[in-house]
């Protein structure tokens, strides 16, 4: 029996067309490298976005492990450097006394995010930014740039955040939005369930001063509040009316919200309109806020005598 022999190879093979397809394992390696490269570029972009600050920004904190981060958003397009210096000095003194961290942000940092919405909406991405930079901190205290911490010796823990203290201050079964909202705060709410602490004035909830506990709820809440639907709705009071709506009509949020008396966290100056019952500043209150100045948008001459009063208290304290 004979077997066919394979053709003899020529010592000078003819040139053949080289395959344009890469081996499977090689293509798989290249695909993996490409995906990894895209992921790395995306991560670097996000890091640069959240950690960068432009020339109009005040100094923001680096990552901290302090129990409280104080978030202050400064609009450098309308506030003078001398006014900003007063606010920064006030916050730094308080943070140093109690081991807290300051997070100073500029409204201009979030212009792309807020678009054509009122600039006051910058509060929300600023607080979100603070959470991202300080993931180990437990509480985030947002305080308007038109406000002073007037009682430098009083810590937030002893004043409000201690379990028994908060339990005693929570306003239960009262209208969320004064004077007669049909939606009321939960009567069975406990301190352990609270993630948001806020006050109300004579007309609305008052987000110029609030405390938010770090966690999944905080991120969900800020994302919900900053939803484009609310920003484009045309609320007369922008984020304030957005907050009124969310807490009244979203039980998930109301169930995590503690309403406390106005002067606990958000006393108004005597010349500012809209204070609630017993909402006007009295000596010894922690915070003094100037909503009338916020409405004007610029510096606040009304703040000056109180700033000098605070300086004396800080010096003696």
From TrEMBL:
Residue segments, region Disordered: 1-21
Similarity-based family: Belongs to the glycosyltransferase 34 family.
Pfam families linked: Glyco_transf_34
Origin superkingdom: Eukaryota
Species for this entry: Penicillium cosmopolitanum
Gene3D superfamilies, sorted: Spore Coat Polysaccharide Biosynthesis Protein SpsA, Chain A
Classification via InterPro entries: Glyco_trans_34 (IPR008630), Nucleotide-diphossugar_trans (IPR029044)
GO CC terms in record: mannan polymerase complex
PANTHER family in the cross-refs: ALPHA-1,6-MANNOSYLTRANSFERASE MNN11-RELATED (PTHR31306:SF10)
A molecular-function term among this protein's GO annotations: alpha-1,6-mannosyltransferase activity
GO biological process: protein N-linked glycosylation
Name by which UniProt lists this protein: Galactosyl transferase GMA12/MNN10 family
Transmembrane segments: 30-50
Keyword Glycosyltransferase listed: yes
UniProt keyword terms in alphabetical order: Glycosyltransferase, Membrane, Transferase, Transmembrane, Transmembrane helix
């Amino acid at each position: 029996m004979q077997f066919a022999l394979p053709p003899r190879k020529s010592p000078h093979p003819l040139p053949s067309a080289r395959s344009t397809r890469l081996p499977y394992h090689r293509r798989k390696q290249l695909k993996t490298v490409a995906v990894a490269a895209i992921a790395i570029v995306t991560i670097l972009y996000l890091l640069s976005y959240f950690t960068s600050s432009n020339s109009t920004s005040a100094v923001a904190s680096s990552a901290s492990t302090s129990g409280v981060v104080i978030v202050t958003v400064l609009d450098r397009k309308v506030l003078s450097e001398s006014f900003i210096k007063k606010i920064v000095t006030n916050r730094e003194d308080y943070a140093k006394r109690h081991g807290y961290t300051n997070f100073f942000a500029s409204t201009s940092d979030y212009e792309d995010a807020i678009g054509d919405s009122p600039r006051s909406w910058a509060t929300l991405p600023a607080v979100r930014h603070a959470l991202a930079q300080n993931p180990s901190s437990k509480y985030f205290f947002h305080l308007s740039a038109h406000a002073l911490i007037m009682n430098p010796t009083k810590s937030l823990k002893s004043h409000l955040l201690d379990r028994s203290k908060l339990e005693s201050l929570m306003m239960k079964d009262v209208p969320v939005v004064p004077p007669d909202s049909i939606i009321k705060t939960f009567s069975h709410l406990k301190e352990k369930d609270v993630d948001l602490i806020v006050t109300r004035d004579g007309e609305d909830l008052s987000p110029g001063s609030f405390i938010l506990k770090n966690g999944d709820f905080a991120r969900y809440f800020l994302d919900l509040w900053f939803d484009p639907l609310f920003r484009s709705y045309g609320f007369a009071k922008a984020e304030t009316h957005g907050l009124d709506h969310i807490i009244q009509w979203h039980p998930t949020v109301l169930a995590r919200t503690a309403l406390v008396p106005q002067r606990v966290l958000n006393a108004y100056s005597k010349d500012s309109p809209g204070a609630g019952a017993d909402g006007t500043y009295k000596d010894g209150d922690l915070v003094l806020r100037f909503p009338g100045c916020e409405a004007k948008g610029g510096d606040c001459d009304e703040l000056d005598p109180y700033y000098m009063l605070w300086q004396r208290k800080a010096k003696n304290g």
